[in-house]
Amino acid sequence: MQGQRGAPTALGVAVVLAVSMSLVLAELPVALALGAGLALAVLVIAVASNELALYLLTVSMLLSPEFIVGGIGGGTTLGRGLTLRFDDVLIALVGLTWFAKTALYKELGLVFATPLNRPIAAYSCAAVIATGLGVLAGNVSALGGSLFVLKYIEYFVIYFMVVNNLRERRQFERFLVVLLLTAAIVSVVGILQIPSGQRVSAPFEGDTPEPNTFGGYLVLMLALTAGLYLTSPSARRRLLLAGLGALMVLPLLFTLSRASYLAVIPVALALFAYGERKLFLTVVFAAAVLAAPLVAPKAVVDRILYTVSQPVQRGQVRVGGLHLDTSTSDRLGSWRQTVFEDWPKRPLFGYGVTGYRFLDAQYPRVLAETGLVGLVAFLWLQVSLFRRTRAILRASRDPLFRGVALGLLAGFAGLVAHSIGANTFIIIRVMEPFWLLTGMVMMIPQLEASQATREPVAAPTRVRAFQPARG
Q1: CA-CA distance, 144 to 72, in Å (whole number)?
Q2: pLDDT tens digits, residue range 370-423?
Q3: 13 within a domain of the structure (yes/no)
């Protein structure tokens, strides 16, 4: 009888809530009402399943619209405003749900112990302290600086969401399929842009497309595809991966991104150094080098040659008998000014995030914004990531896990090169898939161990969550 009375009561509460929400939404503008409804749907998904929310996030990384929010501060926001996207909202909602669950279930830990926890915490703290000092010094807007720092930390939230929720090989495979399927979709969208004659960029970038950003993403996904190809024992799977790789090469070429072209070189070197089938790779690389001048589109060749073929102009940097184009020369000049003139004035914590002028190069920007402390923490994080990924690759015996680890290792090498001419490690469309992939790779030892014992990976607990992981 009590259960029968409870059912009508629950139904009545649900009806009252539905009617109340309908009345509220009816008074809102259509766009705002749709946004509120979408946010509510995402919240329901996040509460129901973190895994489903991560699938939705993976797709939205490259297929959600973005908006540039200007006028929130000086420094870097004068060059490119703060970018807000649907996945920012999604990450915030899923993150808040995650924190709420750890508060309700006291036995759960907040984060899983991994070798990257400490360098992530060090770099995040350096960015927060540097920005706080910049606010006190008056060269950082409190709102603008805080929002940018939160976006930096947002990438690490993705990482911890993955390591906290990845428990079985089947989940690993599903995340991988969604990543590759998303890459295929955006590659097709990129190919459809080629006839326009404009540089190819990622979908839904609004009024300020960034071909360099799209190029960095494609380099990462090409490295992943190549890693999987080299380790896959299945001829059918290698054929599918080869087709996907070819699908990504075409839009990569037409991004006309010289930083992305440069990034392909360390990707190839890393695949050769750490991958298998070296004879096959030697033949492929040699054929690519010989065929490139013959088959490369004219726009690509012209873009590469423009670096040293631009007519002589004032301000160009001269290297030997060559004059670098004005864009490259300006970038080199800004690096020199940052490192030798501006950074020494604030050596420890820099000018704060958004406290320095816009600088389209990762390492000088980290130095200028967070000083020597931030740069050391940033390099610690990168070295730790590289060494741990390499160790996982060498220790793993599963072809799938080896392929993903090899892809991340090669992709990371490519992104380091890409960051010479871009703020690669803070670009949302590159870093979201990068940190999701990193979380997957960091969990490979636990997943392989769980395969041996036929037990799923245990969830983090309060006792072990903040202990440093070994290895």
Answers
A1: 5
A2: 999 999 999 999 999 999 999 999 999 999 999 999 999 999 999 999 998 889
A3: no
CA distance 266 to 417: 7
Closest by CA position to 430, among listed 232, 224, 163, 269: 224
Q: Which domain holds residue 280?
A: 45-110+117-453
Q: 201-209 contacts: CB < 8 A, separation 24 or more?
A: 201/255, 202/62, 202/429, 203/62, 203/63, 204/63, 204/64, 204/65, 204/66, 205/66, 206/65, 206/66, 206/67, 206/68, 207/68, 208/68, 208/80
Instruction: Give the C-alpha separation, 301 to 299, whole Å.
Output: 6
pLDDT digits (tens, 9 = 90+) for 171-200: 999 999 999 999 999 999 999 999 988 899
Residue 337 lies in a domain: yes
CA contacts within 13 A on the Cβ side of 415:
31
CB 274 within 8 A of CB 406: yes
Phi, psi angle pair for 48, to nearest 5° = -70, -45
Give the total number of structural domains in the chain. Answer: 1
- Torsions phi, psi of 84, nearest 5? -115, 140
Cα gap 172→313, rounded to integer Å: 53
Measured CA to CA, the distance from residue 261 to residue 306 in angstroms comes to: 14
Q: Which amino acid is at 84?
A: L
Q: Which two tokens stand for residue 101?
A: 């669950």
Distance CA 429, CA 219 (A): 12
